[in-house]
Amino acid sequence: MQVYLVGGAVRDELLGRPVSDRDWVVVGATPQKMLAQGFTQVGKDFPVFLHPKTREEYALARTERKAGKGYTGFVCDASPEVTLEQDLLRRDLTINAIAKSASGSIIDPYHGQDDIRHKWLRHVSDAFIEDPLRVFRVARFAARFAHLGFNIAPETLNLMQSMASSGELKDLSAERVWQETRRSLMESSPQVYFSVLAEANAWQNWFSELPQHDGLRSQYLKLAAEQQMCEEQRIALLCCNLSPDKAMAWCRRLKVPNSAAAMAKLASRFSSGWHTLPSFNAKTMLTLFNDCDAWRKEARFFSLLAVWQIVAESHNVDGHTLKAIVGNIHKALTAAKKIDIAAILSTGVQGPAIKQAIEHARLEAIENILGN
């Protein structure tokens, strides 16, 4: 029985990047042997085990054969006769098909180190086409490593285009596509993920609501990465140039979490006002606060405000003007939230008049801040 460190941990070590998760391949073992050594089996489709102490994943070396459609349509062979080279052959990219032995020796049968040196994302074998999710996975790696100068090898891009043309991408689950998309949004160059999918002709089934070639989207996401924005903000920026209906249709298609979808809808609803930056008078601000429920969800509102700042910056809004308006919005919301609702109720107003009185008081507080 031989154990090898494989995949991303070896790749990142060779790239000089921090190694967070470590995956292991075991050659020459059986499930019974692993269990006898205290490992816990967790894999259902193929034998994966957790180490009794480190809880890291150890997978038996395996081969896979396509036997149906989609991500799960595979027959797996994890017998003790499967070699390390056979296991590495089924992997997606050469840079992910490198192993390291217990003694520190590098095993690289498919020249992944060469592709690291020359900065290529290249498929290992034609078995690449058997897993349609790899189109999205390669796009994600392109987004992760673009700042290092990595590009997709032409022959790999050709395969991705063929896979998209086959129609098999539509058989993927929304959950799988969403996981690749959300992870890509948090990479250092998230805009690259979308440009690769467009180039691979992989747009129609999952992103049809979004413009396929959108320079503004690329600019938004680039700025979001530079400012280290959170996931929900990046999703909002992805949707902010859509109509609210299209934004929600896309969120439903990919099963985006409800909180992120709600923020995306608000971003799309109000972003157009930041393109031209109309006069943000007291009534405009009060409407914005009400529609975004800034009274109860202040943190979300200010998160959205940062999103709209990027929209404005991308439309070359004067920086001093933008800073002044954002500053006034902060002051206005603070002032409006300080009105004494108990004092309003003590005047004896009832029914719909209560809401009207609160609105009037909030408007007056905002006008005092703005001087209008």
CATH architecture of the domain at 1-112: 2-Layer Sandwich
What is the molecular shape? elongated
Low-pLDDT residue spans: none
CATH homologous superfamily of the domain at 1-112? Beta Polymerase, domain 2
- H/E series: EHEHEEEEEHEEHEHEHHHHHHHHHHHHH
Give the termini distance in whole angstroms: 79 Å
Strand content: 5-15%
* Helix share, percent: 40-55%
Quote the CATH topology of the domain at 1-112: Beta Polymerase, domain 2
- Largest sheet descriptor: 7 strands, mixed
If helices are DSSP runs of H or I spanning 4 or more residues, what is the number of helices? Answer: 18
Strand order of the largest sheet: 3-4-5-2-1-8-9
Please state the structural category: alpha+beta
